[in-house]
Amino acid sequence: MPWLQVKIEIKPQLADQFEDLLLAAGALSVTYQDSQDQPIYEPELGTTPLWNNTVITGLFDAEQNMQQMEQHLRHTYLQLASTEPFPSLHTEILEDKDWEREWMKSYKPMQFGQRLWVCPSWCDAPDPNAINLMLDPGLAFGTGTHPTTELCLRWLDSIDCQDKTVTDYGCGSGILGVAALLLGATSVLAVDIDLQALQATKTNLQRNGLPESQLSTYLPEQAPAHKSDILVANILSGPLVELAPTLAQRVNSNGLLALSGLLANQLQEIIDAYSSCFTLQPAVELDGWIRVTGIRK
Length: 297
Description:
Number of strands: 15
Distance between the termini: 62 Å
CATH class of the largest domain: Alpha Beta
Number of domains: 2
Largest sheet: 8 strands, mixed
Shape: elongated
Structural class: alpha/beta
Helix content: 25-40%
Order of helices and strands: EHEEHEHEEEHEHEHEEHHEHEEE
């Protein structure tokens, strides 16, 4: 069955009003998206900032009378006595699809470095002789398509993981921890604030035929203070700065560190937070994101 969607370009201060108007008019769902490619990085805790130019979309049943719906929107908006004119409105038909399969079709096997491939669990590995990580991210972050994940995977492929212990702090889908195991690590301690991420990590461990004993998952407050030979943290600059003392304590002397989830303009604060405990290497940049690596002093 097809759907009808109404798109309205609004200013952020009108978001709540138009969400209420669309829902009152019969919208089955309401979503927001950026209309002018204005990324919002690392907002303040407890805030949900919107873009300066936001498109709000209401999804309606195909049998909805769109002319009556638009009249209702305009009439109700006028009753709010807003000083802003009613914004432009665009209606279109949205053909029904199996959206899960649409996403699956766009996610293809990807190579990282010389040895490592990340393959969707529903695809055959392009190179059966490579190190193939079979992945289904579920609801967790980490497929390899984001530059920060790619930077971390390429780093893991470039170092010697053989017989090393690893901490994956902010594990998401488990992609980095499972990659480390496939590259020869003996064990991984995976930490995340999201229970869905911990479940996805366990599932992807099993999907790759690895023993459960090789990877343990923890919420941050429950994670044991074990030291590892390698620690990788792909999160955000604010938490990385706050966690610097904690992460430093989790790396063995001469152990390796990789930090990502960072924008190029956040490099200096990471250097300031970690240089006392680590000998840092020059940052590596990809599409405006960076990876910082170092050796524990």
